[in-house]
Amino acid sequence: MIGLHTHETVSATGTLTGDGDDATGFASGEYTTPDAFPQARRSSVERVHRLLSSFDYEHTRLRLSELSRRAGLPLSTTHRMVTELLELGMLERDEDNFLCVGVAVWKFGLLTPKTYGIQRVALPFMQDLYATTRLPIHLGIPQGNQTTIVESLRPQGTGQERPRIGQRDPLHVTAVGTALLAFCDSGFQERYLTDLKDHQGADAPEMIRRELAQTRATGCAISKRKTAPNIAIGAPVLDRAGRPLGAVSLVVPEGTSTPPYDHLIRCTARAVQRTAWEQGVA
């Protein structure tokens, strides 16, 4: 298994290497007892996650030293784990010998039910809406206190490249996220708003609370927080219990009248929802 070594070695310079030199703070003796193995496995998975999470759209290729620094792991640990990840196809090297995310990770991602199922169902309807409007269309799913974009159709040109697939934002800052949050259960909403109050002050939750009520009343959320001066309109896709599976949004130019675009995005979300129910995705 990846990185599950139960011993440490000392380099020629006297530096401790192996599992004991990582950033988890485990002492060398902790890996020698059976009870320590579950903890060692968790820390190994965490280190792999930290390595893979070091890659993003701005850092798609990294040198070993850069990967070590961004992951917060010692160079010796990074080198050892990268060697294993290369053998497993989870990392690859490009023509310039930079490290990149491997095809194996991409294949795993394709199997994620929360993304694959709803993305597969929604894409044809998103394509129809894009053919009608030629405006940016996005699909997001809830992930804890954030929304993650899992599909995006947009025209070429400056300013139309974001959000990118995989981008995550707090629920309240996008139309997709607001549409999701408005249909989460009330307990989750209150916890979210309480946390927002702690970080942004007393006024922020009340403003968001009004937006959530408006979204539930109209069936769509309207926001400019991430798209200003353009306007984003989002509508939820719900499961049979009324919980949000995802949300689709349309970004219209500044000064555009919201109707009929709010009607179009609601119709698209409902078509996705109906098909998801029929295909057992919901």
Please describe what this structure looks like:
One of its GO terms (biological process) is negative regulation of DNA-templated transcription. InterPro entries: GAF-like_dom_sf (IPR029016), HTH_MetabolicPath_Reg (IPR050707), Tscrpt_reg_IclR_C (IPR014757), Tscrpt_reg_IclR_N (IPR005471), WH-like_DNA-bd_sf (IPR036388), WH_DNA-bd_sf (IPR036390). It comes from Phytoactinopolyspora halotolerans. This protein has helices at residues 37-53, 64-71, 75-88, 103-110, 113-133, 175-182, 186-200, 203-218, 261-278, and strands at 8-10, 16-18, 91-93, 99-101, 137-143, 146-153, 168-170, 221-223, 231-238, 244-252. The chain has 282 residues and is α+β, with helices and mostly antiparallel strands. It has 2 domains: 8-108, Winged helix-like DNA-binding domain superfamily/Winged helix DNA-binding domain (Arc Repressor Mutant, subunit A, Orthogonal Bundle); 112-278, GAF domain (Beta-Lactamase). β5 (137-143) and β6 (146-153) form a beta hairpin. The longest helix has 21 residues, at 113-133. The radius of gyration is 23 Å and the shape is globular. Mean pLDDT is 84; it is low at 1-41.
